[in-house]
Structures are given as C-alpha cells and as structure tokens.
C-alpha cells in the first residue's frame, strides 16, 4: 500500500495524506473511522476511485503519523498478503538477467466464496484489458484461478488488485494468510489473448463434485516439509504419493515415487483410478499438481470420501521448484501456456526421463496428435517424434495399416 504525506501549506500547517490501496468500496468501519478522524482532528477524508483503485485522501491541520498508521493498519488488515514465488537461479548474474526480462507469467488461485462470479469476472476482464494482460482467469462461486501474462509491473499490480478484492478470505486477517503467486520472468506475454469467464475452476467427476465441502480439503505442506516427507517414504515410512494431473503431464515429469495417474483428464480421476481402497483411509496421502488448485478440489473430494490423512503440496510443483529445487523430481514440468514445459528448479539439472513410447531416448518433444478426432497430447523422444509424424502412436499405427 502506498502512503504519502505532505505539508501542503507551511503557514497554516495544512497536511495532505493519501493512502492508495486496491480495494473498491468503502466498509462501514472505514466510514466510522473517517467520521471520527474528521471530528477529532478536523481531518477531511475523501475517496477517489481512479481506475478501480480506491484512494483515501486525508486533509487536515496538524499531522500525526499515529493517525495515519491507524488508517494504514485498518486498511492493510483487510487485505490478503501477496507472496511471490519466483524461479531459483544458478548464479546472481543469471538471476539479474532473468529479472530484466520485461514480462512475467503470473499464476495463482484463491479458494473462497465469490458471491457474484459474473460481476467479479467482468471487473477482472476490465482491469486486465486496461493493463494489456493476457491469459486465463476463471471465476466461480468457489474462487478464482488465474494464469496470466503481461508486463512485470502490471502482473504484480494485478496480484495486489486480486488480494484487495478478497479481503474476506478465511484466515485473511490471521498472520501468514497470503495469496501465493508464482511469478516467472519471460521475454514476451505467454498467452495469445485474454479470456476471463465465470465458469467452473476445476471439473471433477460429477459424483465427486456434487457434495464437496471446500472448507475441508486436507492439509498444506510447505515445499521443505514435502521434501522431508518424501525422504521419509524412501526410508520406509507409510504413505502414498498421488499425481493429481494427467497422463501426459506425468510422462513429461513427476515426483519419483508417484504412479502414472492413468487418466487423460481430471474429470476421469477417482480414488479407485488412483488405486486407493478402503484400506487407505488412514494412509498418509501426499498429493501434488502443477500449481496446487487441482489438489484443493481433489483433496476436498478425498476428505469427503473419508480419507483421513490428506496432504497437499502448497503452491504445487512450481513453488516446490522455486523453493527446494529439483530434489526428488524427474523430467520437466508441463505448463498450460506457450512455453509448454519448464524446468523444476535450475534449468537442465533435473534427471531426465526415458521416452514413454520407445523407452530408449530422452523425453524432449511434445505435441498434440495431428488426427483432430484424437488430438491426444503426446510426449516422446526426438526419434519417436520424427517417426510418428505429428500423430500419436495409435493413430500412426492405424494410418500404417
Ligand atoms: Zn522414443
Ligand atoms: Zn492420435
């Protein structure tokens, strides 16, 4: 939040202080505070809203920082903290070079009740348009999910705009509650256009989706704690690692102990598709996905099904790579933008994966099957890519017959 104070008239000791913050609308408490300030110190608060930013302007005689800080506390206490997670770098010069790239890919989600998703989506659409931000923003009654890209300052500002839009997130006032934003430097915006919609954030199987309780979705593990748990599994502690993504994402890269999910879309996934039985009701279940949101929903589904020890990797593999590195990870990480895949941790350091088609080469290529009726995502080594001519194994085989 921006706090500015200046003595505008030295003779009369007239001061003007402005507190800029990204929250539209004025709460009753803020109005009460304003009225009190006005009568006590003859300060005159007013609200200006240029471009969705609310600005508190205090003008008055005799300036006290105490009063200003009181305002500041009130306003910032109603806002989520924004936490940025950025890639790890090999060296200081690599970090500097990367940070000088003009654009960013910003990814975040927030699970929270949204009263009017349509209206909320419109506000975000307008904001993003005004700031030339491209990408996807989905808003539903259960929260918001965004993968966007634009100029660095605009991405950072958008994150603050969002945090300011949802001051009522459960635990927002508690210490440590934050909007975790993955922020990757890129040369140019990573999406072709902007799409902002009021729609479902995540499509689970209807049977799982119907009775979700989003207040109960398992326990977050910080990346460091996740790493310790993975090491614990290696040394024989009980538990299962669940990849809450799709087959092709697993093919491109995964945590070593995770089995291939066996499904092409999340809507096909169920406890039984992951090999869970009633015997696992007390097994520690460690879930991970790209950025974390799929685990929030699937975690709620597992809890509903009576699994008692549900853990999810906070911020997903992206945050893990930024925080811990590639420890325990194999291959690359599939991402849903122009980049297709990114390194987990430092570029080129993770152990490489064998081609799922021939088992020989190293996974390097990635495409959608050229047969439009199929359009399946394929991951393979370069030799297989050349042999399959843009198709998947099955379609190529059929063509050959
Ligand atoms: Zn191959
Ligand atoms: Zn195909």
TrEMBL record:
It comes from the Eukaryota. Signal peptide: none annotated. Residues 235-329 form the Rhodanese domain. InterPro entries: Rhodanese-like_dom (IPR001763), Rhodanese-like_dom_sf (IPR036873), Rhodanese_C (IPR022111), TrhO (IPR020936), TRHO_N (IPR040503). This is TrhO protein. It comes from Symbiodinium natans. The gene is trhO.
